[in-house]
Amino acid sequence: PLHSTLASQDQMRVFETPPPGVTKIVVATNIAETSITIDDISYVVDTGRLKENRYDPTRKMESLVEDFGSQANLKQRRGRAGRVRCGVAIHLVSSGRFESLPAQQTPELHRTPLEHVLLRAKKLYPSRAAAAVLRDLPQPPTPLAIKAATNTLVSLGALERVLPANPPTQRVGGGKALCGVGSGAGSGASSGAGSSGERAGGVTDDGVERRVDITDGAAYTYEEFLEFYEGDARYWDMAKPAPRLTAPSKPPTAMAATASPVVDVDDDGAPPPELLTALGHHLASLPIDVRIGKLLILG
């Protein structure tokens, strides 16, 4: 047998030359797709299947799934024969099945949890939204997966969201509403309205008011109101709904100064939508699940 959980000395046995009259058979997992060379292998019998980790961001569950590989997987496996001599590869799939397989395997970034990736992105690019960094990748993860990972990190305290001091205006329901959030403001600090008859919620002493009324008579929760700015990566990347959104305990500039030595301001002079906390810095360096990492650090 040859698989990744074998001890190194056991893995080396596949390179041993069998005695005369004995046929050597190596039963291998996906590890056979690596550039390993066993010089006396002449035949490859490929089942065409593999096991890979897949992650469901909705259920926040990771599972090991058996499925057919991609065309690239099968082509790579046939290369284990004929490395130093002529060889034969037999794939136990029909030509029709082979043609229906995807050309390439799904990128690992699309089938694994993104919490560690987001933390590393935030550590490398502190002045940018972590979600924006991932969206710039050649094959970015889905927005749902990014949101789920961001929400997990915020709930764990690894990331801290920052609300913009001067958010943009947005035309909503026929009227222009300006949603402003100040820090340390009392009930008198409220959002501005761009046209007559509009009323917007403001920051009270115990958090952010949850109701925002627009001229068309519709009432929105504060979280729904923030959704109108969700597409602007300069401000935040927030999932809906949130149970209750509270204003930061410190102004964004003060939070940036205490949380990170780097000036957290992007090219447009706006603060990023989240800051990496001290806990987040530690979790980014641990090669384990972020939830377990937090237990180890704080336990």
Automatic annotation (TrEMBL):
This is Helicase C-terminal domain-containing protein. Residues 183-195 have a biased composition (Gly residues). Residues 183-204 are annotated as: Disordered. CDD domains: SF2_C_RHA (cd18791). InterPro entries: Helicase_C-like, P-loop_NTPase. Gene3D superfamilies: P-loop containing nucleotide triphosphate hydrolases. It comes from Haptolina brevifila. It comes from the Eukaryota. One of its GO terms (molecular function) is RNA binding. Residues 1-125 form the Helicase C-terminal domain.
